[in-house]
Design brief:
Helix 1 runs parallel beside helix 2. It contains five helices and 14 strands. The longest helix has 12 residues. Helix 1 links the parallel strand 3 and strand 4. The chain is an alpha/beta fold. The protein is globular. The protein has one domain: Metallo-beta-lactamase, Chain A, CATH 3.60.15.10. It has a six-stranded mixed sheet, with helices on one face. Keywords: Hydrolase, Metal-binding, Zinc.
Length: 207
Amino acid sequence: MKIKVLPLGPLETNCYILENDDEALIIDPSGDAETIIGAIEEDRTVKGILLTHAHFDHIGALDAVASHFGAETWIGGEERDWLADASKNGSGKYRDMGLEVIESSIVPKTMEEGERQIGGFSFHVLHTPGHSPGSMSYLFEDFIVSGDVLFNGGIGRTDLYQADHLTLLSSIREKLYTLDEDLTVYPGHGPETTIGDEKMGNPFVRT
């Protein structure tokens, strides 16, 4: 499997494109829809769009990308209605700063914790709330996409709508830090890391 990392949108949020021989998955189409569309080779079929959570900087290009590829979207059930609600997805807060207000028309499918198969992609879904109530992390064979839960040397904010700091720490310790220490972590912002490196050196959450 090949993975492409595209830091896009006003907050340079990482959009991930996963490709196998003839299929692709998109995780968090954060912004700049044309860049995302252009990064997918023409002979690949987009089998779906996975959202780690519904904050505005992770869904800025969702409608355009989903429409272009005719792809279904999956999200944690706690945040299904956030896509269309600017007060919940956070985009309304930054209206006065000139950022786009996002009120998506996408009706997503609900993603639940456990083993999943979309096209030729097999992965395990971990419900990792705290940064937001429906945050999902997507575990593939040798890497995990963690959204805004765990970063390289950092953790997600918890001063947002329905966020909770203790819940976030619990998600990291109980769901992520129990994984193989060599596992690569692809976060919502910034460079990748590994579970082992974060267990050893993340200053915000210790084992």
